[in-house]
Amino acid sequence: MLSAKSLFKEILDNDESFRLFCSIAASGESQGGWENGRIAALVPESERALVPRIVRHGADEDKHGRIFNALMRKRGLHPVPVPPETDYTMLLEKRGIGLAHEKLKADRPLSVQDVITYLAHSRVTEQRAAEQMGMLRTYFTDHPEIGRAVRMISQDEDNHLAYSNEELLRFAAAGHSRFIRRTLRACAFAEIRVHRDVSLAVMAHMGRILGWPAARSAMLAAGIRAVYLYERLAGWRRMVTLRMPERRDALGGPVTQAHEFA
Structure pTM? Predict the structure, then answer.
């Protein structure tokens, strides 16, 4: 029977598919680390209190990239180039979601609306990341090879989601509600489309590596498109709703190190 657990286990058990999975994940996390680092450097003076949290966010993303690379090294594997059609982070940027790299490479301070745009982008994408890592934690928390990595990354993603919710609520209370709602909605609709396209591309690559029959690949593609239709009709709402998290100041502490994966 085809399930999320059996599908991922098949990817995990094959060196080539595992290498592609980890390479894609490491690239995206490292890109997120760079983006947060640049945002922290450009935050306007009025929002400098946010800088330690943005730095922590970026450090977590960098750490995740190192973890995925370490998981490959433990098998004697090296990263492979990320196929452009599977590059979630860059595809979102091309759709105008989040802050453009051109803006981040400049040395001009960001505006308050830029900071809100960054937080809205985080709110939407961290929802996806928290859900995906939560699924892996459910199935593989005790796995001898990836269990510790999954638990650590999942906890971090939950913290990032809590942080973005809390900060957006703070900005909403300061009078930015309309801009936040509009930005969240645009981010959510773009993200679910990019997630669909990336999922289809990743599964196509995995199918070729693992030799899946055409019928199985077609069934997986149909499932991905069905999820997209649900999210397009109703599921997007979970990505734009703001709730004060149970854990406040989730990024207020030190970064958890990744030495155990080296």
Answer: 0.94
